Amino acid sequence: MALSSALSCTRCGTELQSSTPGVQSLTRCRGCGVELGLITFPALQNRPASGQTAERVLEEGESTCFYHSDKRAVVPCDQCGRFLCALCDIELEGKHLCPACLETGRDKRKLKVVEHKRTRYDQIVWSLLILPLPFCAISAPVTASTALVIALRRWGAPPSLVANTKLRLILGMLVGCVELGFSIWFWNRAVFSSWHVAK
């Protein structure tokens, strides 16, 4: 695919001249004369890869695809066992799935590869540590302990795709230990001072 046929002016639609991939350049449109900043990626010049094609059944008695009765089966679905042709075979994490099992796994949230959302346990831990901070001495035995338990129990949970949650969990555990230590010191001091006053 030529670059000139792939890119056009955003104002008038005239095809732009090709430029060196990966290098920023200024290009003047031949149609409307506007000057455009242009950065192209090398992949833009690559031809699109052709998809797999399913083979037709040639002999009587050959296994056929569950969804396409005229196509040869190449693999069974690892979930339901239906025979699949090359068009219907969806490979995820080394497993072969049919479209129905992929849809069911996505809807019931059984496939982690196609998750809709993830619980941000690092945010929960930090909320438990920061929100009750003005009342740290009183609330820390509950909130800091809960934050530590969540951080330890959910350590192996898949992390967020947008933040380094492992580091945030480690920092959260450290802050939780500091808050818990401060709370223990505060309560020990309060109890001992009241005990001395009572004497």
Written description of the protein model:
There is one protein chain. With 199 residues, the protein is mainly α. The protein folds into 3 domains: 3-45, no CATH class; 50-116, Herpes Virus-1 (2-Layer Sandwich); 121-198. The protein contains 5 helices and 6 strands, in the order αββββββαααα. A two-stranded antiparallel ribbon has the order 1-2. Strand 3 (75-76) and strand 4 form a beta hairpin. Helix 3 packs antiparallel against helix 4 (136-153) and helix 3 runs parallel beside helix 5. It is flat and about 95 Å long. The termini are far apart.
Mean pLDDT: 77
The biggest beta sheet is recorded as: 2 strands, antiparallel
Rg result:
30 Å
H/E element sequence: HEEEEEEHHHH
Tell the overall outline.
Answer: flat
Low-confidence spans: pLDDT under 50, at least 5 residues? Answer: 1-5
Helix content: 25-40%
Strand content: 5-15%
Compact summary:
The protein has 199 residues and is mainly alpha-helical. It contains 5 helices and 6 strands; from the N terminus they run αββββββαααα. It has 3 domains: 3-45, no CATH class; 50-116, 2-Layer Sandwich (Herpes Virus-1); 121-198.
Write the layout of secondary structure elements.
Layout (H helix, E strand, L loop, with lengths): L2 H4 L18 E4 L6 E4 L36 E2 L6 E2 L5 E3 L2 E3 L1 H9 L13 H10 L5 H18 L11 H34 L1
Antiparallel strand pairs: 1-2, 3-4, 5-6
